[in-house]
């Protein structure tokens, strides 16, 4: 993993992530926000109050974590959601056809401390394809697109 490349490419996408989260925002919910932890052993992104699709409780939101272990060379392989989110976990599990696990399939590349309080949800792009455009990330597969697909999958409109 090249941390300087991860940081450089994430910085290219950062403003677009804020715009996307604002687009998902439902009226009356808490504002979405994010924090990138790029200087850790395994970089990751925390999204606070990620707005869930309308089929979830109105104004329902979740904090999610995305490992950037191999970003931008390869896509995230899923998200983490708090184990205490039992109502949403069951709805998410239903939406993603049961892809919720206690730990990732490749724990040495993931954030091990999360597994104590968070469940991993396997969510990947169809056929695991990922073509990152280093010059213009939004013209290829990127975190912005990954979050759009996640939202669509939670809404039942995208299947892996």
Describe the 3D structure.
- There is one protein chain.
- The chain has a six-stranded antiparallel beta sheet.
- The chain has helices at residues 3-24, 86-95, 114-117, 143-154; strands at residues 33-37, 44-51, 61-67, 78-82, 100-101, 118-122.
- It is of the alpha+beta class and 160 residues long.
- Helix content is 30%, strand content 20%.
- The protein has one domain (3-154).
- The model has no long low-confidence stretch (mean pLDDT 81).
- The protein contains four helices and six strands.
Task: Identify the quaternary structure here.
Answer: single chain
Helical amount? 25-40%
User: What's the number of domains?
Assistant: 1
- Mass-distribution shape: globular
How large is the count of helical segments?
Answer: 4
Mean model confidence by pLDDT: 81
Strands of the widest sheet, in order across it, are: 1-2-3-4-6-5
- Residue share in β-strands: 15-25%
Give the C-alpha Rg: 15 Å
Beta-strand segment tally = 6
**Span of the ends, CA to CA:** 26 Å
Structural class: alpha+beta
Query: How would a textbook summarize the main sheet?
Result: 6 strands, antiparallel
Point out poorly predicted stretches. none
Query: What is the H-and-E element order?
Result: HEEEEHEHEH
């Amino acid at each position: 993993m090249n941390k300087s490349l991860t940081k450089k490419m994430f910085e290219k996408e950062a403003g677009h992530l804020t715009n996307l989260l604002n687009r998902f925002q439902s009226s009356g919910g808490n504002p979405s926000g994010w924090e990138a932890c790029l200087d850790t052993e395994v970089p990751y992104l925390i999204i606070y109050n990620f707005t869930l699709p309308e089929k979830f409780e109105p104004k329902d939101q979740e904090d999610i974590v995305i490992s950037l272990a191999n970003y931008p060379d390869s896509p995230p392989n899923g998200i983490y959601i708090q184990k205490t989110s039992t109502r949403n976990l069951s709805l998410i599990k239903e939406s993603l056809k049961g892809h919720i696990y206690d730990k990732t399939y490749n724990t040495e590349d993931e954030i091990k401390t999360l597994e104590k309080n968070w469940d991993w949800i396997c969510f990947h792009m169809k056929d695991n394809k990922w073509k990152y455009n280093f010059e213009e990330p939004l013209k290829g597969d990127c975190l912005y697109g990954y979050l759009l697909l996640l939202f669509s999958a939670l809404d039942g409109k995208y299947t892996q």
